[in-house]
Automatic annotation (TrEMBL):
Pfam families: AAA_33. This is UDP-N-acetylglucosamine kinase. It comes from the Bacteria.
């Protein structure tokens, strides 16, 4: 599985969709899940203030549907998905033998601010800006050493996605039973 993480405004969702486009062009079977949607409920479920249990339950259910249909590769985007403490959720949902490739997308504060200002048209811009800077520091300090870091500042999405796809090794494997 491919985990694409990074601060808000770094381009995770956009890069995830472009990764999917490149994989489709290479005839590589895969599924895509935007992890933000797996726990998007309000209020948080009782006893699950961080929405981690509902996220895991939803991921397991959605992945089971994909797996039943023969898919073996997953592109998963979420800010903190690349952190080591998230590994257990993916192993429980997909099996302990799952091969995980972690990619941390990075962007400068100025780039993230510019992107978020374009994206966040509602009332949450300031909250997103503050959270983005905080999570950028957290991710930089805590991702595992083997995490591939990809700079997004001033780069075309197709180039970023190409670097991400190369990190997976998937384009040389075209069966549904790959990693």
């Amino acid at each position: 599985m491919l985990l694409i993480g990074g601060r808000a405004g770094v381009g995770k969702t956009t890069v995830g969709w472009e990764v999917s486009a490149l994989l489709r062009a290479a005839a590589v079977p895969h599924a895509v899940i935007d992890g933000d949607f797996m726990g998007q409920v309000h209020p948080a479920p009782e006893g699950d203030p961080h929405r981690s249990e509902i996220t895991e339950t939803n991921l397991a259910a959605v992945w089971a549907n994909f797996a039943r249909r023969g898919y073996r590769r997953l592109v998963y985007t979420n800010t903190v998905s690349v952190l080591p403490e998230e590994t257990g959720m993916f192993q429980r949902a997909m099996g302990t033998g799952v091969r995980i490739v972690r990619v941390l997308l990075t962007a400068s504060d100025a780039t993230a601010r510019e992107r978020l200002t374009r994206r966040e048209l509602g009332s949450e811009l300031e909250r997103e800006l503050e959270g983005s800077a905080r999570k950028a520091r957290l991710l930089d300090q805590r991702v595992p050493a083997e995490t591939v870091r990809v700079v997004t500042d001033g780069r075309a999405v197709v180039d970023i996605a190409g670097e991400v796809v190369a990190a997976t090794g998937w384009t040389g494997q075209h069966s549904t039973t790959g990693p």
